[in-house]
Design goal:
299 residues, alpha/beta, Purple Acid Phosphatase, chain A, domain 2, six-stranded mixed beta sheet, 25% strand
Length: 299
């Protein structure tokens, strides 16, 4: 049986290009983020991200999921620079991007703010959520939890309309025989992050997942490698996996890593799934394998 590999990275926090912060931004939440960036840029290093991307490319995964926070201030200049970075990675159809809270920090509301990233959001040719991408044995349900928030808050929200559409998509028999992966920026499980950073309608999302089921949830936001779970149908549990920032150097933070999710069909039906973690190990040069583990078999 062939193995289909999906790579997961998150929170690259690309360096702001010249002009990413203007004088008008002093009247928006971008000012708070700009002040914080003076400290954070020492943690989020472009050379670390470059090394991680090189390691990922060498592994040649079949598809790549990026779960948000490509930018820092969500300015038009940053959004455009993030697209330029995405173009260096490979064909857009081989990448799925779920925006993060920093990507919606200020500016216009709604999914249209991500129109520049349309080819990386899904196959519909528009900036809308949720979207489903079928790649190999996987059906990737791409959500957007990125919304504008008040200063010092980093919460997310999916909203009733997006949740209703997700409910319908997960119920669609067209995806029943696929390995179903739900992607969003904010963790779906309780206690993964502080309340001021949490997904506001996480209970509603968990209710949809408990009703319709899924095989895996991928998220970012916490800047930590997290292994959690949320309830699925009939007492089952759905794994929820987070990954640390793709640009974080080892300096008191969880250093950069990415995960490979290896999906393999079982002869009797269903799937095996294994996670291989690669990242920076303090005291060693480059990226290395940090460990591997199997998820529960999917019927």
């Amino acid at each position: 049986m062939s193995i289909y590999r999906i790579a997961h990275l998150s929170d690259p926090h690309l360096p702001p290009p010249p002009g990413a912060f203007g004088w008008r931004d002093v009247f928006t939440k971008r000012l708070v983020s700009r002040i914080a960036w003076r400290r954070k840029h020492k943690v989020h290093r472009p050379e670390v991200l470059a090394a991680l991307v090189a390691d990922l490319k060498a592994a040649a995964p079949d598809h790549v999921v990026i779960s948000g926070d490509l930018t820092n201030f969500a300015s038009h200049t940053e959004i455009a620079a993030a697209r330029a970075w995405l173009e260096t990675l490979g064909a857009p159809a081989d990448f799925t991007v779920s925006p993060g809270n920093h990507d919606a920090l200020a500016g216009s509301g709604g999914a249209e703010r991500f129109a520049t990233w349309t080819p990386w959001l899904g196959d519909l040719g528009e900036a809308s959520f949720p979207q489903v991408r079928v790649r190999g044995p996987a059906a990737i349900f791409n959500l957007c939890s990125a919304v504008r928030t008040a200063p010092h808050l980093a919460t997310g929200r999916l909203g009733e309309e997006q949740l209703q559409r997700l409910d319908a998509l997960l119920a669609d028999p067209a995806y029943a025989d696929h390995f179903r992966i739900v992607v969003l920026h904010h963790p779906p499980q309780k206690g993964a992050v502080a309340r001021r950073k949490a997904l506001e309608d996480q209970e509603a999302l968990r209710a949809v997942l408990a009703k319709r089921g899924a095989d895996l949830v991928l998220h970012g936001h916490a800047h930590e490698a997290l292994v959690g779970s949320v309830p699925g149908p009939n007492g089952s549990m759905i794994p929820a996996l987070g990954v640390s920032s793709a640009s974080a150097k080892p300096s008191g933070h969880s250093p950069a890593r990415w995960h490979a999710i290896e999906i393999e069909a079982r002869p009797e039906g269903g799937y095996h799934a294994r996670v291989v973690a690669r990242g920076i190990e303090p005291g060693r040069d480059g990226l290395t394998e940090l460990g591997r583990y199997r998820l529960a078999d999917v019927s």
